[in-house]
UniProtKB/TrEMBL annotation:
UniProt KW keywords: Ion channel, Ion transport, Membrane, Potassium, Potassium channel, Potassium transport, Transmembrane, Transmembrane helix, Transport
A GO-annotated cellular component: postsynaptic membrane
Protein name (Swiss-Prot/TrEMBL): CSON008702 protein
UniProt superkingdom: Eukaryota
Localization annotation: Membrane
GO molecular function, one term: large conductance calcium-activated potassium channel activity
Principal subcellular localization: membrane
Positions of the Calcium-activated potassium channel BK alpha subunit domain: 3-48
InterPro entries with a match to the protein in the record: K_chnl_BK_asu, K_chnl_Slo-like
Claim: Oxidoreductase is one of the keywords in the record: no
Membrane topology per record: Multi-pass membrane protein
């Protein structure tokens, strides 16, 4: 079986999840957070929720250039299972 076939089959088992990012991510640029999630946690962070000034208005921003992670930021990512997403609540070791 070719390498791409294995990658494809592994990808078909993944789903999208949302989770509040750990305080360890606060003030981290989005690009750095995505790299850290992928290299250390094996999670693919795709987007974050960006809240408006009054917290009543929010939007989902995919790959937001220049954005920094704030407290209680909701992350949108791809993972094999919901259990993998719990790592984001526990912080980074």
């Amino acid at each position: 079986m070719q390498v791409w076939t294995n990658d494809y089959l592994r990808g078909t088992g993944m789903e999208m999840y949302t989770e509040t990012l750990s305080p360890s991510f606060i003030s981290m640029p989005f690009g750095q957070a995505t790299e850290l999630c992928f290299t250390k946690l094996k999670l693919l962070l795709l987007a974050i929720e960006i809240k408006g000034i009054d917290d009543n208005d929010s939007k989902i921003s995919i790959n937001p250039r220049g954005a920094k992670i704030l407290a209680n930021t909701q992350g949108f990512f791809i993972a094999q299972s919901a259990d993998e997403s719990l790592v984001l609540l526990q912080g980074l070791s």
